[in-house]
Amino acid sequence: MSTTKRSFLQVACAALIALAPMPTLADGWEPRRPIDFTIMAGAGGGADQIARFLQSVAQEYDMTNRPLVPSNRGGGSGAEALIHVSNASDPDHTILVTLNSFFTTPLRQENLGIDVQNFTPVAMMGVDPFVLWVHTESGITDFDQFVAQVQSMNGDFVMGGTGAGQEDSIVIAFMSDAYDLDINYIPYDGGGAVARDLAGQQIMATVNNPAEAKGFYEAGDFVPLVAFSDERLPAYPDVPTMMEMGHEFSYYNQRAVVGAPGMSEEAAEYYRNLFTQIYETEEWQAYLESESLSPLWMDAEEQAAYWATQVESHRELLASLGE
Fold first, then answer.
1. Which residues, other chains included, contact 62 with Cβ-Cβ below 8 Å and sequence gap of 6+?
2. What residues contact 102, with CB distance under 8 A and at least 6 apart?
3. CA–CA separation, 206 and 213 (whole Å)
4. Residue 271 and residue 288: Cα distance in Å, rounded?
5. Pairing outcome for strands 157-162 and 205-206
6. How far apart are CA 6 and CA 194, in angstroms?
7. Residue 46: left if φ>0, alpha if ψ -120 to 50, beta else—which one?
8. What are the pLDDT tens digits along the chain (323 aa)?
9. How many CB atoms lie within 10 A of CB 322?
10. How far, in Å, CA of 118 to CA of 77, rounded?
């Protein structure tokens, strides 16, 4: 089972959109107070970076009459954010930046009573691949050396990732099963903390998204070993994919904005137009390229269909990996 970029496209029934003139925001409804811009992860990770970049673009172009106010709620593999947004007292002023824990956390924590189909589709902003990273001082320079090192340590090789049973742990669980690796996995609330601890060598490897590891890579601290993408990433052309190694597995993180359950249609249209505007700016398109994200757009109907498919895909994926 793999969550490939191709599957995103097939579910969305759409290719990359061409840039078009910015639409006018919906007539009528406008925010009456600051907008709760909840982030389903901790500070410094990919979701956090994206949310704050989106907020900065909206502010730069004066796109909203009330500010987007980012707040990190990454506890419980994003359960904190899901509960907060599900129980929002003002759904019209509450939106959420999501990753794939939007699907996995409700599956693994059924007691939450969260049904993602109750959320309001707003915007799919792109999809984010995963890369296996080690510290330069490890001396590991390719994937074969990594496998040999992990196998030699008999369960003492330590990797960090965001949460248990969510994106990072899914990728690591697949890799462990495919190569008979015994890895000691430490869950974190966000990818920023994971990357910082690899930089400080508190852990030995990660599967951070490129944006989360980029600064450390550029500083010469990190070495990328393999990409869990359909094709080699332009920013890392010498890094092979897991596909090239004979495994039909790739995995992408959704980078999406969703509205609270119960949001009015007028508010939903306002936010859809807002994030369409942001998506079509030169700044966002440049961000996608610089951070190795793949552009992808879905309208509200396509997003709802995509959510249903991804819930079932992740149910099967978690079961197959024993998560």
1. none
2. 40, 78, 82, 116, 254, 256, 258, 307
3. 9
4. 20
5. parallel
6. 28
7. alpha
8. 454 544 444 433 333 333 333 444 445 899 999 999 999 988 888 899 999 999 999 999 999 999 999 999 999 889 999 999 999 999 999 999 999 999 999 999 999 999 999 999 999 999 999 999 999 999 999 999 999 999 999 999 999 998 777 789 999 999 999 999 999 999 987 888 999 999 999 999 999 999 899 999 999 999 999 999 999 999 999 999 999 999 999 999 999 999 999 999 999 999 999 999 999 999 999 999 999 998 888 888 899 999 999 999 899 888 877 76
9. 7
10. 19
- Residue type at 315 in one-letter notation: R
Structure-token match 């094709």, residue found: 231
Q: Does residue 170 contact residue 317 with C-beta atoms inside 8 Å?
A: yes
How big is the chain by its Cα radius of gyration, in Å?
19
Neighbours of 132 (CB within 10 A): 22
Kindly report the pTM of this predicted structure.
0.82
Cα separations (Å) of 238 from 147, 153, 224, 225?
A: 18, 27, 9, 9
Which three-class secondary structure string do you get for the chain?
Answer: CCECHHHHHHHHCCCCCCCCCCCCCCCCCCCCCCEEEEECCCCCCHHHHHHHHHHHHHHHCCCCCCCEEEEECCCCCCHHHHHHHHCCCCHHHEEEEECCHHHHHHHHCHHHCCCHHHCEEEEEEEEEECEEEEEHHHCCCCHHHHHHHHHHCCCCEEEEEECCCCHHHHHHHHHHHHHCCCEEEEEECCHHHHHHHHHCCCCCEECCCHHHHHHHHHCCCEEEEEECCCCCCCCCCCCCECCCCCCCCCEEEEEEEEECCCCCHHHHHHHHHHHHHHHCCHHHHHHHHHCCCECCCCCHHHHHHHHHHHHHHHHHHHHHCCC
What is the token pair recorded at 290? 């610089």
